[in-house]
Amino acid sequence: MTKEQLRIVSPNGHLGFAPTKEESFHIAAATKPDYYCCDSGSDDIGAAALGADRSVSMYQWQKHDLELMLLASREQNVPMIVGSAGDCGTKSRVDLYVEIIKDLAKEHQLPPFKIAYFYSDVDTVYLADRIKEGTRIEGLDNREDLTKVDVEKTTRAVAVAGIHPYVKALEMGADVIIGGRSSDCAVFAAPAIFEGFPEEHAYYLGKVLECASFCAEPYGAKESVIGTITHNDVKVTAMAPHQKCTIASVAGHAMYERSNPYFEYFAGGMLDMTHCKYEQYDEKTTRITGQKYIPIQGDTKIKIEGSGKVGEKYIGIAGVRDPYTIQHIDKVIQLSKEQVKEEFPTTNYHLNYRIFGKNGVMGEMEPIRDIQSHELGIVVEGIADTKELAEAITLMGTRQIFYARLPEVKGTAGTAAFIVDEVLPSTASYSWTINHTLPVKDPMSLFELNIETIQETIKV
Q1: Are residues 294 and 244 in the same domain?
Q2: Which one of 213, 284, 371, 447 is most buried, counting C-beta atoms within 10 A?
Q3: Do 269 and 340 share a structural domain?
Q4: Which of 428, 432, 448 is nearest to 122 (CA)?
């Protein structure tokens, strides 16, 4: 028998990125939701995590958030779902989360439960073969179609799962699901669709819950919210005592990141939010109706993300207080670049200067008012093929800020630029090489799904 409603708690907009706030989580858990769901990754963090196959979140924070969800969901005997494991959703990150779940089960002596997990990694050879056979792999965000050259530049690639592996895992009786790279919305839409609720409400539910308390006001991250789906509407309720889900906060969140804020695309269709109606249901809850889901005809298209290594990177930091140097900082940077080029005429490198405090505001933004900062902070990024070269280029580029030969400067008078004498090693630099959609006949074909039972460990 189809349920009349389903309640899903979203405790964190990015599991592990910063710790989940426990007070609002326990308030949510006390209401006995039907599912505990959380997204744990994003391409917003940049290409380095995927390229380097690493997390950008602290292990302890990841474990903290997984532990909260696991213990609450096992106590209630309801499913727990986490997508895009470990920030980038690669196989190693999925395995990391599965191992954490097993360790927690042992530590807390949990009764047996089924854990399903899937991998999203895509072999670049496979992508090259699809191009060779004539498959058009269309670019997103104004990119050209994927080429063999793009694939050759790619260090690592993942497919972005929709609802399909999650629904399949639920059909197999999974109690805990750890997903590889996934659509943020799919983590929440999948259980709603599995339970028989309309796609238009399920996908909107995913859209509004993916960032947790970002859909509430006043602004506050890492607080829990609960989404309630029926066959007629979606409601979203803030759990933190100081927050409310208002018409403005919910509508604003639903539309904030789209080039066309009224449409959201998924693997098999499109969510049309043009005619959404927002109502203040109660003091902490907003009700949403009017959204539509439009299926896309033909093959399913799965988004592929790929990252390629640019080079090793070092970072230098410089501070400038001299008014004359600040006034001519663009010339100082140009002179510094010229000195590096003169020292490394045949070396392949990238050198970037980020100026903070210029014109009274941060970075390269337009000035808010016509004032001159009393101090600039300059971050120098040097990238080259080896660590040794990257360090040398960054050191040279940073120190040349101090040695820049400006006109009208007599001796060392006024050249009050102070620098960090040693530059700092950084994670290697990566760039996005693939942001494309791949047509597939079977939406499960790119995802390897596994399921096993975690047995209770008997205390000795």
Answers
A1: yes
A2: 213
A3: no
A4: 448
User: Strand 35-41 to strand 5-10: parallel, antiparallel, or no bridges (unpaired)?
Assistant: parallel
**Domain extent at residue 418:** 310-433
Burial of residue 158 (CB within 10 Å: 0-12, 13-18, 19+) is buried
Instruction: Specify whether 175 is located in the same domain as 195.
Output: yes
Whether 460 is covered by a domain: the verdict is: no
- Do 272 and 381 reside in the same domain of the chain? no
User: What's the DSSP call for residue 296?
Assistant: P
CB 54 within 8 A of CB 10: no
Q: Looking at residue 406, what is its pLDDT?
A: 79
CA R_g for the chain: 25
Q: Which of 24-38, 160-174, 398-412, 440-454 has the lowest mean pLDDT?
A: 398-412
262 neighbors 255 (Cβ within 8 angstroms): yes
pLDDT tens digits for 94-142?
A: 999 999 999 999 999 999 999 999 999 999 999 999 999 999 999 998 9
Residues 389, 395, 401, 405, CA torsion sign: negative
- For the chain, give the percent of residues with pLDDT over 70: 90
Q: What global pTM score does this model have?
A: 0.90
Give the mean model confidence (pLDDT) for residues 150-160. 97
Instruction: Output phi, psi for 228, to 5 deg.
Output: -115, 125
Backbone angles phi, psi at 25, to 5 degrees: -65, -45
What is residue 460's predicted lDDT score, i.e. its pLDDT?
36
Residue 33 has pLDDT above 90, yes or no: yes
Q: DSSP code of 175?
A: S
Q: Is position 321 within any domain?
A: yes
> The tokens 């426990």 sit on which residue?
22
Greater model confidence, 272 or 228: 228
Q: Specify the residue for token string 């890492």.
A: 222
Note whether residue 256 is domain-resident.
yes
Pairing state between β 138-139 and 35-41: unpaired
DSSP SS3 for 331: helix
Whether residues 391 and 447 share a domain: the answer is no
Does 169 reside within a domain? yes
Label the pairing between strands 277-282 and 285-289: antiparallel
Closest CA to 199 of 209, 184, 188: 188
Model confidence band, residue 323 (pLDDT cutoffs 50, 70, 90): confident
**In terms of domains, do 72 and 178 share one?**
yes
> What stretch of H or E contains 432?
strand 424-440
* Domain count within the chain: 2
Asked whether residue 259 falls in the same domain as residue 175, the answer is: yes
Residue 259 has pLDDT above 50, yes or no: yes
Query: Range with the lowest mean pLDDT among 32-41, 163-172, 219-228, 421-430?
Result: 421-430
Report the CATH number that the domain containing residue 352 is assigned in CATH.
Answer: 3.30.70.600
Q: Tokens 């990015």: give the residue.
A: 14
Does residue 82 sit in the same domain as residue 224? yes
Q: Is the peptide bond before 218 cis (omega within 30 degrees of 0)?
A: yes
